[in-house]
Write a structure and sequence with these properties.
Number of strands: 14
Strand content: 5-15%
Shape: elongated
Length: 708
């Protein structure tokens, strides 16, 4: 909502015969801070002050014989007991007298700055004496019969000089107050413009025509601003600073972004943003004075007819500040916006709006209600501002009417707007209550539907898949997904049972021995295997049966077809970004939700779960009996799980398990290398569709010598 032009000060040059439209005073100021005037008894007297100053100094002046003591009140300064007072030099005494005289003749001017802080000007004796002298010269000489009354003339001159100082003080404060008023006026213009823009864009489907109309209303103001800039003289200020900006562009432009108390915007066109007409803007200086023309006056006269009268009386020559013209034009735009939303409501097929009964010919009626001279026009304009703010915040028509009749800021003018709409406050309240009841009912329905939808939208995990698959109220797609999750889990359970059975029937090798290599590495194998790597059989001891089981399982895990090898091959099927997504959503992955139905995800999930079981079953994992899946889950919950962490964890586990496998190695081989060979040809024959390169890499990492 635009500000009332009466809130924008308009100083008028001295001697100007420029007519001022009725209702728009030449200047409006924030009341200056009160100035405490000194009473007559407190008014400083220079001669008395000087005499008091002299009286307070040690004096060697002769005593005036017969002078009454009351005429020259002298207080003799008593020297301190410890340090006797030193007499002042003539220079110091003159300096003290001058400072006291300066403080009396030219006191600093006190004022309050734009931030509300008390300030004072620097004293200037020359300026004070000159202004006081001029004021005294302009004071008429007083005569008594037969002689000039010098006492009265001097008193009048002093009073005139004192009044001049008072006016100077008030003048400084007035300038500060005027500046603050101008800044607040521009700030309000910008706030109102943003509110109207936001309100207009709330209903983009129907507000396209209104955007074009707002641009057309601003066009005359823009035209006279351009004319002003084309005829700049000397130190004239430019009116238009930038053009063709979207609101986002304007907010990013330093001429507007950093000067919201100094500059404002005028609409200068429109552009399509996602198929919706959106206004573009020019950044302007609202303090520039421009010459109005007939089109710009016609726009403003819709609300302030006195502008047309002033324009006509001046013979078509009317100067106004660009900000004043913009402020009134914005009010016209606001009124037309209100007429648009209420006009649409009057023509709506909605039963509640039809029952409300807004007048079908509302266009023009709200403009009449806010027009200057209409009873309650100012209150009606204030009420429109509250309505506009409601729409800017995304409110519905019910919210707007509720603001109209119940908001204390809007209530003073609500009767005038309601009268223009052809409805009463009771009718508006009935409509508001009906809409609110419908909202409550809709919220209850939505709440129930949302509960059901939330249940239906739950991820299909291993735990809930059976119930979803058997729920006939579920969609066929979700039931099918549930069946796939059930099948994946069943496959895992089958493989897990077989693996556990394999562990259970594994027999210890009675010939399994253990010994230390020269580098201290513990290895295990038969006597022949240990001799092959250069170990003295006499230094070998029998490996306990419990440790034999761990060695056997560890060797199975790192074998070319082992779980660790398969898990690493599974990871190789994913891109780095996919692995990062799995790591970030590990809990969903582990529950069977992420990647449901994708063979790559199913293979990785199954092998990782089996690996977790195997490590825990055999107690050979680097974390003892802790399930590796649970470890990964704890990393994910701590926000530390990603693709690299996942791969690194598997690689680390493999190195540890390789150590537990206690594979014999020849002297000079790296840890984990063995003299066993891996036949790549045999593996290909057994796995015709397998990844040869991955198998080869896994065998080499496990320490096998790869042969064809």
């Amino acid at each position: 909502m635009a500000i009332d032009p009466t809130q924008i000060p308009q100083p008028v040059a001295s001697g100007s015969n420029q007519p001022t439209p009725s209702g728009v005073p030449a200047s409006t100021n924030i009341p200056p801070a009160p100035v405490q005037a000194a009473s007559a008894s407190e008014t400083p007297n220079l001669s008395t002050a000087v005499m008091q100053d002299v009286a307070n100094k040690p004096s060697n002046l002769p005593t005036i014989p017969g002078a009454p003591a009351s005429q020259i009140p002298v207080t003799v300064a008593q020297p301190a007991a410890a340090q006797p007072a030193q007499p002042q030099t003539p220079h110091a005494m003159h300096q003290s007298l001058y400072q006291r005289a300066l403080s009396i003749l030219a006191p600093p001017t006190q004022y309050v700055d734009a931030q509300g802080n008390p300030q004072q000007t620097r004293p200037s004796l020359s300026n004070s004496i000159l202004s006081g002298a001029i004021a005294g010269m302009l004071t008429p000489t007083a005569y008594r019969q037969g002689e000039v009354d010098t006492q009265t003339t001097a008193a009048n001159a002093f009073a005139a000089g004192k009044q001049q100082r008072k006016e100077a003080d008030e003048n400084v404060q007035k300038q500060i107050d005027d500046r603050q008023t101008r800044m607040l006026g521009v700030a309000k213009m910008n706030a109102d413009l943003l509110h109207l823009h936001a309100a207009t864009m709330q209903d983009q489907a129907t507000m396209g025509d209104l955007v074009q109309k707002q641009v057309a209303n601003d066009a005359p103001s823009l035209a006279i601003a351009r004319t002003h800039d084309q005829n700049l003289q000397g130190t004239d200020t430019k009116a238009i600073l930038a053009s063709g900006l979207t609101l986002a562009d304007a907010m990013a432009n330093p001429l507007y972004r950093d000067a919201l108390l100094k500059h404002t915007l005028l609409r200068d066109g429109s552009v399509d943003v996602d198929g919706v007409p959106t206004a573009t803007y020019s950044i302007i200086d609202p303090h520039v004075k421009v010459s109005m023309d007939a089109p710009s006056v016609a726009i403003a006269a819709q609300i302030f007819p006195s502008w047309q009268t002033a324009f006509d009386n001046a013979g078509g020559s009317l100067q106004m500040k660009l900000g004043q013209i913009k402020a009134v034009t914005d009010q016209v735009n606001s009124v037309e916006y209100a007429e648009k939303i209420f006009g649409d409501a009057a023509n709506s097929k909605d039963p509640l709006l039809q029952k409300l009964g807004i007048s079908s010919d509302v266009e023009g009626k709200i403009m009449s209600a806010v027009r200057q001279g209409t009873p309650g026009a100012q209150q009606a304009r204030q009420t429109l501002m509250a309505l506009e703010n409601s729409k800017a915040a995304g409110g519905t028509l019910a919210d707007t009417l509720n603001r109209l009749i119940n908001d204390p800021d809007a209530r003073p003018g609500s009767a005038y707007i309601l009268n223009a709409l052809g409805i009463t406050a009771n009718q508006a309240q009935d409509y508001i209550d009906s809409v609110q009841n419908e909202r409550i009912a809709a919220q209850e329905i939505a709440k129930k539907a949302g509960t059901i939808a939330a249940q239906k939208a739950k991820p299909i995990t291993f735990a809930v898949a059976p119930s979803i698959a058997n729920d006939k109220s579920e969609t066929p797609e979700r039931r099918q997904q549930a069946q796939a999750v059930i099948a994946e889990n069943l496959d895992f359970k089958t493989k897990e049972a077989a693996m556990k059975a394999q562990f259970a029937v594994a027999k210890p090798n009675p010939n399994m021995m253990t010994a230390s290599m020269t580098d201290g590495t513990q290895v295990a194998g038969t006597i022949d295997e240990l001799k092959a790597v250069g170990i003295d059989p006499n230094k070998a001891t029998k490996l306990p049966a419990a440790d034999q089981s761990k060695v056997i399982i560890a060797r199975q895990l790192i074998s070319p077809d082992g779980l660790l090898t398969n898990t690493q091959k599974d990871l190789a099927a994913f891109s780095p970004d996919e692995l990062t997504a799995i790591g970030n959503r590990w809990n969903e992955f582990a529950a069977g939700t992420l990647g449901s139905g994708d063979p790559r995800y199913i293979a990785l999930r199954t092998d990782a779960r089996l690996l977790s079981t195997a490590l825990m079953q055999a107690h050979v994992g680097s974390r003892g009996s802790e399930a590796i899946m649970e470890h990964f889950a704890s990393l994910a919950n701590a926000g530390k799980m990603d693709g690299e962490t996942l791969k690194t964890a598997i690689d680390t586990e493999r190195r540890y398990v390789t150590e537990k496998a206690m594979l014999p190695k020849a002297q000079g081989q790296q840890p984990g290398q063995v003299t066993h060979s891996f036949s790549l040809g045999a593996w290909q024959k057994a796995n015709p569709t397998g990844d040869v390169n991955a198998a080869k890499a896994a065998a080499q990492q496990a320490g096998y010598k790869v042969v064809q």
